[in-house]
Amino acid sequence: MDRIPILRMGQFLLVTIQVDLYDRLALDLEADLVKAVSKTGARGILIDISAVSIVDSFMGRIIGNIGVMSKLLDAETVVVGMQPAVAITLVELGLPLKGVYTALNVERGMDLLKSKIQFEDETIDQEDDNSDDLPE
Amino acid sequence: MPLDISKLLKKKQAVILERWMTNQMADNSMREDLMSNEDLRQESDELISALVKTINDNNINNPDSDDFDQVIEILGGISISRSRQGFSPRETGLFIISLKEALLQVLREEVKDLAQFVDLSLAISRLMDGFSIMTFETFIKGREEVILRQTDEITEISTPVIRVWDGILALPIIGTLDSARTQVVMESLLTEIVESSSSVAILDISGVPTVDSLVAQHLLKTVSATRLMGAECIISGIRPEIAQTIVHLGIDLSDIVTKASLASALQYAFRTMRLEVRKNAAKL
């Protein structure tokens, strides 16, 4: 029984998909990821699909689902390393993956996640500061 | 007395050539700018020699005979080269039609028997008309080849991906966007994004004459694909009339960054990449 390993790195979870996903594997990955996010309290998920050469609508939907689910658990999802052919296929299938961020490679994906989290934390801090100004 | 057409023509070859040249010169659509008289004479001479060599009493009434293969080959070569040089169909047609006239003139001087003359004229006419039709067909085919080649060239050269800055690509689209071209544009853009690891792509549509709902859909597809690759896509060069069309058709471009000119798109790209272009205060 294959499992796609989920690596923890600070506040983030790293997933590298190095095989072509069949449906069972994709569903398992979805379940494992959601569990892992809630267990570790991760703030971001980075999915590297640079080795994936073929996608179908099912896999596109799973990636979209992961994005929406992790958003519910306060984690951002970024998909990195998509090949041109895969991008064209997803667009033709009408799956623009609205719920997830995308980046060109792992490095940029990491930068993106960091900046997103920083931005969120800053806005929260600002809201806290503003709450102090309220009249007693 | 029976008349040997091939002997007659051989004897009169020089005369026919002269007559033919005169006939061609007489026409005021003669294109000396495209072709010198020497070249014309050479072509004419070659064709007459081939014709005189092959024509005889048996095949004169049979224009489809294999004997004329060489003549047809020479004619084909001439009309293809003329269509490439830019001669008009009329000029190309005149070349062969004026030969018929020259032949008939010579026949009239040489053949005294009326019945024989009529028969021969008819035969020659039929033969030459066959050649004329062939010439036209080849001429058109030559033209079509040129058009096809140009179409291919246009498709190839019209989608350059330009690196305007480190991490910024620009893709000026010139001409109509159909599905096939969108595919080419999308592929070359995505490949270039990977190769240059760019984070911003600018699609400039100032060269696109009209945007209908299909073109808009193609643009949206390209933008989505770019986003999936982890780059941002800006559409620039939207002319007022295109903006009107987009609104009238009810196309929703609200989640795409659109700019009026390539310059403002570039400015926006600089801002997203936190780059700044400043004038140097020091005198150069």
From TrEMBL, chain A:
CDD domains: STAS_RsbR_RsbS_like. This is STAS domain-containing protein. Pfam families: STAS. Residues 2-113 form the STAS domain.
UniProtKB/TrEMBL annotation, chain B:
InterPro entries: Bact_StressResp_Reg, RsbRD_N_dom, STAS_dom, STAS_dom_sf. Pfam families: RsbRD_N, STAS. Residues 158-269 form the STAS domain. The keyword Glycoprotein does not apply. The keyword Phosphoprotein applies. Keywords: Phosphoprotein. This is STAS domain-containing protein. It comes from Mucilaginibacter terrenus.
